[in-house]
Write the C-alpha coordinates for this entry.
Amino acid sequence: MRQLIVGNWKMHGLGPALAELLTLRHALYARPPLADVLVCPPATLIARAVAAASNAFSIGGQDCHAEPSGAFTGDISAEMLKDAGAGAVIVGHSERRHDHGESDAMVAAKARAAWRARLMPVICIGETEAERAGGEALDVVARQIAGSVPEEAVASATVLAYEPVWAIGTGRTPTTAEIAQMHAHIRALLTARLGGEAGGVRILYGGSVKPGNAGEILALPDVDGALVGGASLKASDFLAIIEAAAARS
Ligand code: 13P
Protein backbone atom coordinates (compact mmCIF):
# COMPACT_ATOMS: atom_id res chain seq x y z
CA MET A 1 0.00 0.00 0.00
CA ARG A 2 1.37 3.44 -0.86
CA GLN A 3 1.95 5.58 2.16
CA LEU A 4 0.15 8.90 2.48
CA ILE A 5 1.80 12.02 3.84
CA VAL A 6 -0.70 14.70 4.86
CA GLY A 7 0.16 18.26 5.79
CA ASN A 8 -2.30 20.02 8.10
CA TRP A 9 -1.60 23.74 8.01
CA LYS A 10 -4.22 24.44 10.70
CA MET A 11 -4.92 28.20 11.00
CA HIS A 12 -1.67 29.20 9.32
CA GLY A 13 -1.18 30.70 5.90
CA LEU A 14 -1.97 33.79 3.84
CA GLY A 15 -1.47 34.17 0.09
CA PRO A 16 2.33 34.33 0.20
CA ALA A 17 2.43 30.87 1.83
CA LEU A 18 1.41 29.43 -1.55
CA ALA A 19 5.07 29.83 -2.53
CA GLU A 20 5.74 26.78 -0.34
CA LEU A 21 3.30 24.79 -2.47
CA LEU A 22 5.02 25.88 -5.67
CA THR A 23 8.34 24.70 -4.21
CA LEU A 24 6.68 21.41 -3.27
CA ARG A 25 5.20 21.00 -6.73
CA HIS A 26 8.50 21.60 -8.50
CA ALA A 27 10.30 19.15 -6.23
CA LEU A 28 7.66 16.44 -6.69
CA TYR A 29 7.64 16.89 -10.46
CA ALA A 30 11.41 16.57 -10.51
CA ARG A 31 11.40 13.49 -8.27
CA PRO A 32 8.07 11.68 -8.17
CA PRO A 33 7.48 10.60 -4.57
CA LEU A 34 7.00 7.04 -3.37
CA ALA A 35 4.09 8.26 -1.27
CA ASP A 36 0.81 10.01 -1.96
CA VAL A 37 0.84 13.63 -0.79
CA LEU A 38 -2.05 15.75 0.50
CA VAL A 39 -1.90 19.30 1.85
CA CYS A 40 -4.78 20.73 3.88
CA PRO A 41 -4.44 24.53 3.98
CA PRO A 42 -7.01 26.91 5.50
CA ALA A 43 -10.26 26.91 3.53
CA THR A 44 -9.53 30.41 2.21
CA LEU A 45 -6.52 29.05 0.32
CA ILE A 46 -8.00 25.84 -1.06
CA ALA A 47 -8.86 27.06 -4.57
CA ARG A 48 -5.52 28.81 -4.97
CA ALA A 49 -3.70 25.81 -3.49
CA VAL A 50 -5.33 23.51 -6.05
CA ALA A 51 -3.97 25.74 -8.82
CA ALA A 52 -0.54 25.85 -7.20
CA ALA A 53 -0.42 22.07 -6.77
CA SER A 54 -1.31 21.49 -10.42
CA ASN A 55 -2.01 17.79 -9.80
CA ALA A 56 1.46 17.16 -8.37
CA PHE A 57 -0.30 16.50 -5.06
CA SER A 58 -3.82 16.73 -3.61
CA ILE A 59 -5.48 19.47 -1.59
CA GLY A 60 -7.93 18.92 1.26
CA GLY A 61 -9.98 20.74 3.86
CA GLN A 62 -9.46 20.63 7.63
CA ASP A 63 -13.08 20.17 8.67
CA CYS A 64 -16.57 20.15 7.19
CA HIS A 65 -20.15 20.46 8.36
CA ALA A 66 -22.25 17.31 8.19
CA GLU A 67 -25.02 18.96 6.18
CA PRO A 68 -24.66 19.81 2.48
CA SER A 69 -26.07 23.35 2.95
CA GLY A 70 -28.22 25.31 5.35
CA ALA A 71 -28.38 28.05 7.98
CA PHE A 72 -24.99 27.32 9.55
CA THR A 73 -23.15 30.64 9.59
CA GLY A 74 -19.43 30.28 9.19
CA ASP A 75 -19.48 26.57 8.42
CA ILE A 76 -18.33 24.91 5.21
CA SER A 77 -19.91 21.79 3.74
CA ALA A 78 -18.07 18.89 2.19
CA GLU A 79 -19.73 19.77 -1.11
CA MET A 80 -18.26 23.29 -0.88
CA LEU A 81 -14.79 21.89 -0.29
CA LYS A 82 -15.26 19.61 -3.29
CA ASP A 83 -16.46 22.58 -5.33
CA ALA A 84 -13.31 24.49 -4.40
CA GLY A 85 -11.19 21.62 -5.73
CA ALA A 86 -10.49 19.61 -2.58
CA GLY A 87 -10.13 15.84 -2.78
CA ALA A 88 -10.14 15.07 0.94
CA VAL A 89 -11.06 16.47 4.34
CA ILE A 90 -9.73 15.97 7.86
CA VAL A 91 -12.55 15.18 10.31
CA GLY A 92 -12.44 14.83 14.08
CA HIS A 93 -9.05 16.44 14.62
CA SER A 94 -8.43 16.72 18.37
CA GLU A 95 -8.47 20.51 18.06
CA ARG A 96 -12.03 20.22 16.72
CA ARG A 97 -13.03 17.59 19.28
CA HIS A 98 -11.65 19.59 22.22
CA ASP A 99 -12.01 23.24 21.15
CA HIS A 100 -15.39 22.81 19.42
CA GLY A 101 -16.91 20.01 21.46
CA GLU A 102 -17.18 17.54 18.59
CA SER A 103 -18.46 14.13 19.64
CA ASP A 104 -17.72 10.80 18.01
CA ALA A 105 -21.21 10.88 16.48
CA MET A 106 -20.54 14.27 14.90
CA VAL A 107 -17.26 13.00 13.50
CA ALA A 108 -19.00 9.97 11.99
CA ALA A 109 -21.58 12.28 10.41
CA LYS A 110 -18.79 14.37 8.93
CA ALA A 111 -17.11 11.26 7.51
CA ARG A 112 -20.40 10.33 5.85
CA ALA A 113 -20.71 13.89 4.53
CA ALA A 114 -17.26 13.56 3.00
CA TRP A 115 -18.27 10.38 1.15
CA ARG A 116 -21.53 12.01 0.04
CA ALA A 117 -19.43 14.78 -1.56
CA ARG A 118 -16.89 12.30 -2.97
CA LEU A 119 -14.14 13.44 -0.64
CA MET A 120 -11.80 11.12 1.25
CA PRO A 121 -12.16 11.66 5.01
CA VAL A 122 -9.08 11.52 7.21
CA ILE A 123 -10.71 10.48 10.51
CA CYS A 124 -8.63 11.47 13.53
CA ILE A 125 -8.48 9.67 16.87
CA GLY A 126 -6.09 9.71 19.82
CA GLU A 127 -5.89 9.79 23.59
CA THR A 128 -5.04 12.67 25.93
CA GLU A 129 -2.04 12.64 28.22
CA ALA A 130 -4.21 11.91 31.25
CA GLU A 131 -5.85 9.00 29.46
CA ARG A 132 -2.47 7.51 28.56
CA ALA A 133 -1.18 8.04 32.08
CA GLY A 134 -4.27 6.27 33.38
CA GLY A 135 -3.60 3.27 31.15
CA GLU A 136 -6.71 3.97 29.08
CA ALA A 137 -5.16 4.79 25.69
CA LEU A 138 -6.17 1.53 23.99
CA ASP A 139 -9.73 1.73 25.33
CA VAL A 140 -10.14 5.38 24.36
CA VAL A 141 -9.06 4.65 20.81
CA ALA A 142 -11.40 1.65 20.66
CA ARG A 143 -14.29 3.84 21.77
CA GLN A 144 -13.42 6.53 19.24
CA ILE A 145 -13.27 4.01 16.40
CA ALA A 146 -16.60 2.49 17.43
CA GLY A 147 -18.17 5.96 17.50
CA SER A 148 -16.52 7.83 14.67
CA VAL A 149 -15.72 5.30 11.94
CA PRO A 150 -18.96 4.42 10.11
CA GLU A 151 -19.44 0.71 9.49
CA GLU A 152 -19.85 1.24 5.75
CA ALA A 153 -16.30 2.60 5.42
CA VAL A 154 -14.42 1.25 2.41
CA ALA A 155 -10.66 1.11 2.24
CA SER A 156 -10.16 3.12 -0.93
CA ALA A 157 -12.07 6.10 0.48
CA THR A 158 -11.11 6.07 4.14
CA VAL A 159 -8.00 7.11 6.07
CA LEU A 160 -7.52 6.91 9.83
CA ALA A 161 -5.05 9.14 11.68
CA TYR A 162 -3.83 8.26 15.16
CA GLU A 163 -2.72 11.44 16.87
CA PRO A 164 -2.02 11.24 20.59
CA VAL A 165 -3.19 14.65 21.80
CA TRP A 166 -0.15 15.09 24.03
CA ALA A 167 2.20 14.65 21.07
CA ILE A 168 0.62 17.42 18.98
CA GLY A 169 2.83 20.47 18.73
CA THR A 170 4.88 19.43 21.76
CA GLY A 171 7.97 17.85 20.22
CA ARG A 172 7.15 14.71 22.22
CA THR A 173 6.18 11.42 20.61
CA PRO A 174 5.33 7.96 21.89
CA THR A 175 8.15 5.43 21.56
CA THR A 176 8.25 3.51 18.31
CA ALA A 177 7.09 0.43 20.27
CA GLU A 178 4.09 2.37 21.56
CA ILE A 179 3.22 3.62 18.08
CA ALA A 180 3.51 0.09 16.64
CA GLN A 181 1.35 -1.33 19.45
CA MET A 182 -1.36 1.28 18.91
CA HIS A 183 -1.39 0.89 15.13
CA ALA A 184 -1.69 -2.91 15.44
CA HIS A 185 -4.55 -2.35 17.90
CA ILE A 186 -6.26 0.04 15.46
CA ARG A 187 -5.86 -2.47 12.60
CA ALA A 188 -7.42 -5.21 14.72
CA LEU A 189 -10.33 -2.95 15.71
CA LEU A 190 -10.91 -1.98 12.08
CA THR A 191 -10.85 -5.64 11.08
CA ALA A 192 -13.49 -6.46 13.66
CA ARG A 193 -15.58 -3.53 12.44
CA LEU A 194 -15.03 -3.51 8.67
CA GLY A 195 -13.94 -7.05 7.87
CA GLY A 196 -11.80 -7.42 4.76
CA GLU A 197 -11.84 -3.69 4.02
CA ALA A 198 -9.73 -3.02 7.10
CA GLY A 199 -6.50 -4.31 5.58
CA GLY A 200 -6.52 -1.55 2.98
CA VAL A 201 -7.38 1.39 5.23
CA ARG A 202 -4.35 3.59 5.65
CA ILE A 203 -3.54 4.35 9.29
CA LEU A 204 -1.43 7.50 9.67
CA TYR A 205 0.57 8.54 12.70
CA GLY A 206 0.45 12.22 13.69
CA GLY A 207 2.00 14.27 16.47
CA SER A 208 5.39 15.98 16.27
CA VAL A 209 6.47 14.22 13.08
CA LYS A 210 9.64 15.96 11.89
CA PRO A 211 12.34 15.23 9.30
CA GLY A 212 14.45 13.78 12.12
CA ASN A 213 11.97 11.14 13.29
CA ALA A 214 9.89 10.47 10.15
CA GLY A 215 12.11 7.64 8.92
CA GLU A 216 11.80 5.48 12.01
CA ILE A 217 8.08 6.13 12.41
CA LEU A 218 7.22 5.47 8.76
CA ALA A 219 9.17 2.19 8.85
CA LEU A 220 6.88 0.72 11.53
CA PRO A 221 4.36 -2.01 10.66
CA ASP A 222 0.82 -0.71 10.20
CA VAL A 223 2.05 2.89 9.90
CA ASP A 224 0.81 3.82 6.44
CA GLY A 225 1.78 7.47 6.45
CA ALA A 226 1.90 10.58 8.58
CA LEU A 227 -0.29 13.54 9.47
CA VAL A 228 2.07 16.47 9.86
CA GLY A 229 1.32 19.84 11.43
CA GLY A 230 4.12 22.32 12.04
CA ALA A 231 6.66 20.60 9.80
CA SER A 232 4.28 20.80 6.83
CA LEU A 233 4.43 24.60 6.72
CA LYS A 234 7.90 24.67 5.20
CA ALA A 235 8.32 22.85 1.90
CA SER A 236 11.86 21.75 2.74
CA ASP A 237 10.80 20.04 5.99
CA PHE A 238 7.70 18.53 4.44
CA LEU A 239 9.70 17.23 1.49
CA ALA A 240 12.17 15.58 3.84
CA ILE A 241 9.27 13.73 5.49
CA ILE A 242 7.86 12.71 2.09
CA GLU A 243 11.31 11.39 1.15
CA ALA A 244 11.30 9.27 4.30
CA ALA A 245 8.12 7.49 3.25
CA ALA A 246 8.84 3.95 2.21
CA ALA A 247 6.94 2.14 -0.51
CA ARG A 248 5.11 -0.88 0.82
CA SER A 249 4.41 -3.89 -1.27
P1 13P B 1 2.36 18.75 14.83
O1 13P B 1 3.00 17.98 13.70
O2 13P B 1 2.65 20.22 14.76
O3 13P B 1 2.66 18.14 16.17
O4 13P B 1 0.77 18.64 14.62
C1 13P B 1 0.21 17.39 14.44
C2 13P B 1 -1.19 17.57 14.02
O5 13P B 1 -2.06 17.93 14.80
C3 13P B 1 -1.51 17.34 12.60
O6 13P B 1 -2.88 17.24 12.41
